Amino acid sequence: MLLSGEYFVLHxxxxxxxxxxxxxxxxxxxxxxxxxxxNSYDNHGKKWFEAEIDLMGLDVVExxxxxxxxxxxxxxKACCQNxxxxxxxxxxxxxxxxxxxxxxxxxxxxxxxxxxxSGWADVNPYHLYFDVSDxxxxxxxxxxxxxxxxxxxxxxxxNVEEVEIPFTFKENLYFVxxxxxxxxxxxxxxxxxxxxxxxIIDRISSLSEKVLELKTLNSFNxxxxxxxxxxxxxxxxxxxxxSHFPDFWGEIKSLGAWGGDMILVTSDKSRAETESYFKxxxxxxxxxxKELILK
Length: 295
Prior knowledge:
The structure is a single chain. By secondary structure, this protein is of the alpha+beta class. It contains 10 helices and 12 strands. It is about 35% helix and about 20% strand. Strands 2-6-3-4-5 form a 5-stranded mixed beta sheet, covered by helices on one side. It is globular.
């Protein structure tokens, strides 16, 4: 997930991204035949998507979701274009994908799918990502990272730098899923319609690096407020703290596309008090930093 740089990362701003402990696993079985049998399971082991793809033309024969089926076809074709040997030996494949988190949390199920497919097809994950997506690619970088990263998308290039989060106040940080899945594609379209001034891009990049130097919860709260105000003005959307949680005592930061998925909250009160507040607002899941974030 993006701690900083949402929307602006598409315009070249350096973003700070946090890989999560929870991801997605892929199991591949080779059988006799000439098709792919695809099954996707949620974190409870319940199948939420299935499809059959004919390897002759990579056509989706059957699919429980037409849009996802079209995306899989596009993904398989891109894998073959990047590696002509991929699927060149006629076999039947049974593919099972297992999510380790609820789908509505928005922790990059598409990006981890692309990353897993790149490993199977033996292709560059970034080449594959940009062949099938218009996003920044930060989430694919997270899929292959061992910890937090600074990510910068340039003109025909990208830079990934693994960093340490030195916060001494991690116990005061929580993540709250909002259960309102927002389309990443819609967020990308919104960001690309706007052209931020260079000084704003530079300021966001500076904030992404500055956050790594913060020593106190108060300074982090100030950092959140400044970052949220910049994004709010850029996309013309009210901060979620103002619209949904105006009486909360800590700070609140949207993560990724605004309006859904998940928020980061800071609290100088106990976890029980923090959980009680969000439960009173009908949000029953509150995750600690250490529970969710890798390193």
